[in-house]
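A.,

Following up on our hallway conversation. Structure tokens first:
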């Protein structure tokens, strides 16, 4: 296994990590921004008002995009495990 192969596997893993995490992070960030604007406008500063909508949004995103995330991760792991004999030999 060469250094180039290790760097390629690491780069692919980080790219996949960003691609899989982006839907959840993007939606939670957008909901957090909307809740913050709502809190600033209404001057209601309740901690649960900031937490609960983000939690609900994350659960909804996982319910909608979860199968795609899981399929993508399983495909990457399968490809990585199948490439072990080629890397060693």
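Then the amino acids I'd put at each of the 89 positions:
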């Amino acid at each position: 296994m060469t250094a180039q192969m290790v760097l390629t596997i690491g780069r692919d893993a980080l790219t996949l990590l960003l691609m899989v995490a982006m839907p959840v992070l993007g939606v939670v960030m957008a909901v957090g921004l909307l809740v913050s604007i709502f809190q600033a406008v209404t001057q209601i500063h309740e901690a649960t008002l900031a937490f609960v909508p983000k939690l609900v949004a994350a659960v909804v995103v996982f319910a909608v995009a979860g199968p795609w995330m899981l399929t993508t991760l399983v495909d990457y792991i399968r490809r990585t495990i199948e490439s072990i004999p080629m890397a060693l030999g």
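DSSP finds three helices and no strands in the chain. Curious whether your intuition agrees with the design.

B.
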